[in-house]
C-alpha cells in the first residue's frame, strides 16, 4: 500500500475488505463491537527495523484510529527499555483500554515485560517465586509491525501488515496468549512467548550479536557458521508433561515411519532411548528426566512460523493452551542435522528422526553438565579465571580439545545470563488485539523477515 493511502491492503482478511469498501469513515465508526478500545497508549520505537516506525504509525495507523474515534497517547521512545520502565512504574493504565507497540519483536518483548511486571506488582505477586501463579494482564496489546523481525506479529495475526494489525485493534479482537517465566533458582530472569533455544539457536544468536553491524544478513552467516561448528552440549532436561485435552506436538503431522513417539500414547511413556548416545531417562514422580548430549534444546510456545519456515519449529504448537513444545535434538551427524533443519523449510515432518524427540510440557528445567560456571558470557567477563576454568573443563571433557562446554539460551532473541534454568508456562497471561493465525496464511507472505 502506498504511503499515506487509505486503499485496502492486499493482505487484509476478507472481513476487513468489506469494512473498508464501504465509505471508510462512517463505516468504521458504525462497527458496533462491544470490545472495541476507545483509548490507547502507543509506544513507537523510532529505531526499529528500517527506522520507519514513526512514519508507519503517522501515515497508516493514526488515520485509522482517528476514524474509529479512538483517543491515543503516543510516546516515541528515547532509549532501550524506555517503554518497559514507563509501563512498569509511571503509566496511568486505568486511562486505557490497551497498549500498542510499534516496532519489532524486541519492542514487543519490552512492552510485554512492562505490562506483566506492573500487573504482578499491583497484585502483590512475587515474580522471583516460581511457585506463585501470575495474575493475567487486563489490558490487551496491539502489535504494529515495524521491526526487522516481526515474528510475534506474523504468528498471531498471519501477516506483517500495519493496516491489518490496526484493524484488529479497531474492531477489538482478542487473542489470549501463554507466557513462559524463566528462572534461575530463586531469581526471575525473563518472560518468553515464542522460542527458548539452547545449543544451535543459542549459538546462532550469540554469534550474530557480535555481527550486528552486518544487519539482518548476520543471522544467515551465523547460522551457517554454527551449523559447521556442530557443537553438542551435555545436560539434564526434566519436564512435567502437559495433561488433559491439549493434543500432542505431532498432531496433523504425517509420520512416515511410525516412530516410537507416535506409537506411544501416554505421556509418561514418551521417554525414548537413543541407542547411540550416552544417555538415560527415567521418571521421578510426575517429572520426566532425560540426560544426554544435545545439538539443540528448543521450547516453542507458538509455531514460530515465518516465511522461511512456513510450518515453524513446532507446527501444531498452540498460542494459549498452557503448554510449550519441548524439542530435543540429540547428538547426530552433520548430514542428519542438516536433513532435520531442511525439513523446517518443506512439508516433511521435522520430528520424524530417531535423534529428535518432542514433548508437550507445562514446566521444564535444564541443568548443563558443567554447572559450576554459569555461562560462556560469564567466562568472557572474567577472562583470567575463565581461561583457567575453561581449560579445566576441557581436560575433563572427553570429546573435545577446547569446545565450549555450555551454550547460551536464546530467549525470544535475547541471550540469557544463565544456563541452568527453570521454565513454567502461564496459561493465557496476556491478550493481544489479534485473532490467531488463519490456516493458509502461514504460507502467504514471502516478503516478511524472520531471524529465529
Ligand atoms: N529509542 C530507542 N533507542 C534505542 N533502542 C531502542 C529504542 N526504543 C526501543 N529500543 C530497543 O530496540 C530494540 C530493537 O527494537 P525492535 O524490536 O523494535 O526492532 P528490530 O529491528 O526488530 O530489532 P531486532 O533486530 O532486535 O529484532 C528493542 O529491544 C528495544 O528495547
TrEMBL record:
InterPro entries: ATP-NAD_kinase_N, CERK_C, Diacylglycerol_kinase_cat_dom, Lipid_Phosphate_FormReg, NAD/diacylglycerol_kinase_sf. GO terms for biological process: ceramide metabolic process. The keyword Heme does not apply. Pfam families: CERK_C, DAGK_cat. It comes from Labeo rohita (Indian major carp). Residues 35-186 form the DAGKc domain. GO terms for cellular component: membrane. SUPFAM superfamilies: NAD kinase/diacylglycerol kinase-like. It comes from the Eukaryota. Keywords: Kinase, Transferase. The lineage of its organism: Eukaryota, Metazoa, Chordata, Craniata, Vertebrata. One of its GO terms (molecular function) is ceramide kinase activity. This is Ceramide kinase-like protein.
Amino acid at each position: 500500500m502506498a504511503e499515506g493511502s487509505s486503499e485496502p491492503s492486499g493482505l487484509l482478511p476478507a472481513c476487513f475488505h468489506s469494512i473498508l469498501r464501504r465509505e471508510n469513515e462512517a463505516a468504521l465508526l458504525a462497527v458496533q463491537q462491544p470490545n472495541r478500545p476507545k483509548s490507547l497508549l502507543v509506544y513507537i520505537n523510532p529505531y526499529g527495523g528500517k527506522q520507519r516506525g514513526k512514519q508507519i504509525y503517522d501515515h497508516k495507523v493514526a488515520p485509522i484510529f482517528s476514524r474509529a474515534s479512538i483517543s491515543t497517547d503516543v510516546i516515541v521512545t528515547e532509549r532501550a527499555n524506555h517503554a518497559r520502565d514507563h509501563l512498569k512504574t509511571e503509566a496511568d493504565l486505568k486511562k486505557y483500554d490497551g497498549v500498542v507497540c510499534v516496532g519489532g519483536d524486541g519492542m514487543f518483548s519490552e512492552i510485554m515485560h512492562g505490562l506483566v511486571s506492573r500487573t504482578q506488582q499491583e497484585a502483590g505477586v512475587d515474580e522471583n517465586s516460581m511457585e506463585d501463579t501470575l495474575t493475567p494482564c487486563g489490558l490487551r496489546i496491539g502489535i504494529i509491525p515495524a521491526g526487522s523481525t516481526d515474528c510475534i506479529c506474523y504468528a498471531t495475526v498471519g501477516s506483517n501488515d500495519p493496516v491489518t494489525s490496526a484493524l484488529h485493534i479497531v474492531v477489538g479482537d482478542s487473542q489470549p496468549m501463554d507466557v513462559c517465566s524463566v528462572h534461575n533458582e530463586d531469581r526471575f530472569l525473563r518472560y518468553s512467548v515464542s522460542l527458548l533455544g539452547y545449543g544451535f539457536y543459542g549459538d546462532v544468536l550469540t554469534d550474530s550479536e557480535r555481527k550486528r553491524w552486518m544487519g539482518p544478513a548476520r543471522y544467515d552467516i551465523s547460522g551457517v557458521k554454527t551449523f559447521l561448528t556442530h557443537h553438542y552440549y551435555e545436560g539434564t532436561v526434566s519436564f512435567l508433561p502437559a495433561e488433559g485435552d491439549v493434543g500432542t506436538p505431532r498432531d496433523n503431522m504425517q509420520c512416515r515411519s511410525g516412530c516410537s513417539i507416535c506409537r506411544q500414547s501416554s505421556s509418561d511413556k514418551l521417554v525414548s532411548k537413543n541407542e547411540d548416545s550416552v544417555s538415560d531417562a527415567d521418571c521421578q514422580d510426575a517429572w520426566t528426566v532425560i540426560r544426554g548430549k544435545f545439538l539443540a534444546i528448543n521450547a516453542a510456545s507458538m509455531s514460530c512460523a515465518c516465511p522461511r519456515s512456513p510450518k515453524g519449529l513446532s507446527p501444531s504448537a498452540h498460542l494459549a493452551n498452557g503448554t510449550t513444545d519441548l524439542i530435543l535434538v540429540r547428538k547426530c551427524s552433520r548430514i542428519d542435522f542438516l536433513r532435520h533443519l531442511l525439513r523446517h523449510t518443506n512439508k516433511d515432518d521435522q520430528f520424524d528422526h530417531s535423534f529428535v524427540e518432542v514433548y508437550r510440557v507445562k514446566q521444564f528445567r535444564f541443568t548443563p553438565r558443567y554447572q559450576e560456571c554459569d555461562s560462556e558470557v560469564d567466562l568472557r567477563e572474567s577472562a583470567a579465571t575463565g581461561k583457567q576454568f575453561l581449560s579445566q573443563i576441557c581436560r575433563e571433557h572427553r570429546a573435545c580439545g577446547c569446545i565450549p562446554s555450555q551454550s547460551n539460551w536464546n530467549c525470544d532473541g535475547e541471550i540469557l545470563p544463565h544456563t541452568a534454568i527453570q521454565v513454567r508456562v502461564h496459561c493465557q497471561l496476556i491478550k493481544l488485539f489479534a485473532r490467531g493465525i488463519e490456516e493458509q496464511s502461514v504460507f502467504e507472505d514471502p516478503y516478511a523477515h524472520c531471524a529465529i
